[in-house]
Amino acid sequence: MSRPGRDDSPDRLYTLTGGRSRSGSDAFDLVTLVVTESEPAPGMQSEHAAILRMCRFPTAVVEIAAELGLPVTVVRILLADLHDTGRISARHPRSAHRLPDPDILEQVLVGLRNL
Amino acid sequence: MASEISERPALAGTADNGLKIVVVGGFGVGKTTMVRSVSEIRPLNTEETMTKAGEAVDDLDGVRTKTATTVAFDFGRITLDAHNVLYLFGAPGQERFWFLWDRLFAGTLGAVVLVDTRRLADSWYAIDRLEHHGTPFVVACNDFGGPAHTEDQVREALDLPAEVPLLRCDARARASSKTVLIALVEHLARLQKAPELIP
Questions:
Q1: How much is the ipTM here?
Q2: N or C: which end of chain B has fewer CB within 10 A?
């Protein structure tokens, strides 16, 4: 059985994103956590509605892509749509620097040791 | 598909900081095995695509082609505390996936280079690339029961600087994989105190 999305024609992906191939910004990192701010509205594009249902609890961009069976690139575009209209909020990774701050590293160490 | 979704436990509402560690290595070296052994979710698979101008130029009319390259990668998840969630990515180490690496490495904490000591050359490219990016890493030799190499032999074959941690592991064992991740984060903490060690 092939994973949904894998064999989809490029045409379908083109339709999903309204023909856009870029999200306009790389704001959505793979691990940006997305949170729904408003419930799906009737008539909404089904992928948008699926994202809103999925993100009632924080969900990473990469998890959304895996569950929708869509390439990350396409998901970023869908997320930009929802973000622009205020339907989702984004919790971006804090450590954008070359090395994360010492507090975060310490928290990671404590978390891993507690596994 | 619905059952797969229900197997993925939701994160706490307070989760607000996603962190990344990349596991790289050659085909069949155990990247997904390592991700699975420590992940709280069954590893998921997704793909990244990139369109690039093709290298090949038609001799007759000089038309440049655009090619879309798609590469799949696995990932798992570890909830560290109420705020921090660590995502582990298993990425293929072959040269043709360089573009995926560039994306995955952006903002990553660091990398684990998983090595099969019977095929050390498979990890040369990965190590080159990490050094080029200045991404901190540790090297973990997955135990396949092959001929034992001394640490010095492996270090020499991989041309590893002394400050890069080298350890053995069993990627199937949660405790062992966890030890590798802890070694990486401890290495990061050392680098933070001595940033001049970053290549």
A1: 0.84
A2: N
